[in-house]
Amino acid sequence: MLKTIRKHGITLALFAAGSTGLTAAINQMTKTTIAEQASLQQKALFDQVLPAERYNNALAQSCYLVTAPELGKGEHRVYIAKQDDKPVAAVLETTAPDGYSGAIQLLVGADFNGTVLGTRVTEHHETPGLGDKIELRLSDWITHFAGKKISGADDAHWAVKKDGGDFDQFTGATITPRAVVNAVKRAGLYAQTLPSQLSQLPACGE
């Protein structure tokens, strides 16, 4: 009887150990898969705001944290694109604080000579059917920033048409596109200052 109990106890212990090991392995595989998917999604988003042929470094690994009023309150990530180890452009996280329904989060690709290479909205709370046309899935409006050059802080072209600029506003919604245009302009201007700052900026994760 004692021998049988001992045998069953060993079997249960081995089963428990095996189950624990299997669970740990599944958890690790799941974490790896999630991380890989997140990395692929990030790369796909980068490619929408910065043409892949413009750089040949691992963009996600060239990340810096900046605190600059031009990008909004708090810290924002900036990714430096390099061609043969030479900085040539940046992808910047930036915030338009003055959207109609709150802050609008953006990703802006820009070179260091004042040209915006692409822009995408990553988060917003704008009104469905009106301000949400800043989303690519609803309108191509956000694509019109690509290739536009900023000549300086006083560049009047960088405004919605209602304010005398080049960018369309939406029917019944001017506040949202105005906020985005202004935020992208600020980010593009800030990008021009990055080359002189790189040696002082903390890397992400430090």
UniProtKB/TrEMBL annotation:
Task: Report the EC number(s), separated by commas if there are several.
Answer: 7.-.-.-
UniProt signal peptide: 1-24
Biological process annotations from GO = electron transport chain
Q: Say which domain of life the source belongs to.
A: Bacteria
Residue positions where FMN phosphoryl threonine is found in the record: 174
The answer to whether keyword Electron transport applies is yes
- Mode of membrane association: Single-pass membrane protein
Q: Where is the FMN-binding domain?
A: 99-191
Q: Which Pfam families match?
A: FMN_bind
Q: Spell out the molecular function terms from Gene Ontology.
A: electron transfer activity; FMN binding
Function summary: Part of a membrane-bound complex that couples electron transfer with translocation of ions across the membrane. Required to maintain the reduced state of SoxR.
Q: Which PANTHER family match?
A: ION-TRANSLOCATING OXIDOREDUCTASE COMPLEX SUBUNIT G
Q: What is this protein called?
A: Ion-translocating oxidoreductase complex subunit G
